[in-house]
Design brief:
The protein has eight helices and 15 strands. It has 373 residues and is α/β, with parallel strands linked by helices.
């Protein structure tokens, strides 16, 4: 969406617009976090969204990680490309919801000023902060070190041409993850950023590192991402969120729509249990005359699945209630295929006599009977 012209009387919105345009055009000045006006605008607008994303994914870490990981105290966490720290502090908010847990968080960014702002924000009796000023992916003053959780958010969107260099960095870091440790990578939900992250994920999987992919891909994907087969495809989350009126007002003034948490993420583990085999809805669910349809992924193949309206019944009604990121309990989609998949793409007309079972919410929470109603 093209940004509307910002009134001169609103300097914060004007600075947000400038940042937004530079991010969209992949032309952000690497030193933008060094300027007070840019940091203020970033924190007031993007900061709230980043913290909400971090908190949402932090609770998912608690859900998907091995329980033994959270018995450690302190838990050691490394955040790469921290900026003013909002994403990492959101993750910390979720982790510290466990009353027995304490957290040692090391923030890394190229901007000393941004790290100083993070230091002022991260006040919690069970949270300790340390810092490294470093230009990623080359500088690594935080290594060697032992970490239980490593996070990196929104770095690739500003470094699209350094995917393999970041893969080198993350592969090295993975050797310093403790058994059961987790690596969380997050990028914006636009096509370029999403495909860049998925490409990085494929690179890590191809290197035979000690990491396995836990989420969101079904069945512990080990081969190349099906979304990368077609240049028009990408995979991202669209989760409900409650934003402050201040953020919503700023969004309206710059011509943005802020109605959900939109992001692409990959969660790797050194050990851990991948998401079970299933079909994950990776598009909106569409309704047209005579049918419902959506794009699904089983970790190997990209499926277009239709439910004809005449086949809607007690067994199939759950299909019509699906939202992006939710999964169906179906481990053998080939048995339902109209024809064998071609170039990583397949088609299914869901039969009226095959029950549709909703397996899990986007964050891995299993469905229960209340969700079905």
């Amino acid at each position: 969406m093209k940004n509307r012209k910002i009134p001169a009387k609103d300097p914060l919105a004007a600075e947000v617009t400038k940042l937004s345009r530079s991010f969209a055009e992949r032309a952000a000045d690497p030193s933008y976090m060094d300027r007070a006006e840019s940091r203020e605008a970033y924190g007031a607008y993007y900061g709230e969204v980043s913290r909400s994303k971090g908190e949402s994914l932090g609770y998912e870490i608690l859900r998907r990680g091995a329980p033994s990981l959270f018995l450690k105290s302190p838990l050691r966490m490394l955040d790469l490309g921290s900026g003013t720290g909002e994403f990492a502090l959101g993750v910390a908010d979720a982790l510290l919801s466990l009353p027995s847990l304490s957290l040692s968080l090391h923030l890394v960014d190229r901007s000393r000023e941004a790290l100083s702002d993070a230091a002022r924000e991260g006040e919690h009796s069970r949270l300790s902060l340390t810092f490294s000023q470093a230009v990623l992916p080359d500088a690594r003053p935080f290594l060697p070190g032992s970490f239980d959780i490593v996070t990196m958010a929104n770095c690739l969107a500003e470094n699209e041409n350094s995917v393999e260099e970041f893969a080198d960095l993350l592969q090295e870091i993975s050797t310093f993850l403790t058994p059961g440790g987790l690596l969380l990578l997050v990028e914006p939900a636009d096509r370029r950023a999403s495909r860049t992250l998925l490409t990085l994920g494929d690179s890590l999987l191809s290197r035979h590192s000690p990491l396995s992919l836990l989420a969101p891909c079904p069945g512990g994907r080990t081969s190349s991402c099906p979304a990368l087969e077609d240049p028009g495809d990408w995979c991202h989350e669209d989760r409900p969120a409650d934003f402050s009126e201040f953020l919503l007002k700023t969004a309206r003034s710059v011509g943005h729509v802020k109605d959900a948490l939109k992001m692409t993420y990959l969660l790797f583990g050194r050990e851990g249990t991948p998401a079970p085999p299933s079909l994950r809805l990776v598009s909106p669910l569409h309704k047209e005359k005579g049918l419902f349809f959506g794009d699904f992924c089983d970790g190997k193949t990209w499926w277009r699945i239709r439910l004809l309206t005449r086949n809607r019944g007690d067994l199939t009604r759950s299909f019509t209630r699906l939202h992006r990121g939710e999964t169906l309990s179906e481990s053998s989609p080939l048995s339902l295929a109209i024809a064998p998949p071609v170039d990583g793409r397949g088609s299914i007309d869901w039969p009226k006599d095959r029950q549709v079972v909703r397996l899990a919410h986007p964050d891995g929470r299993p469905f229960d009977s209340d969700d079905e109603t």
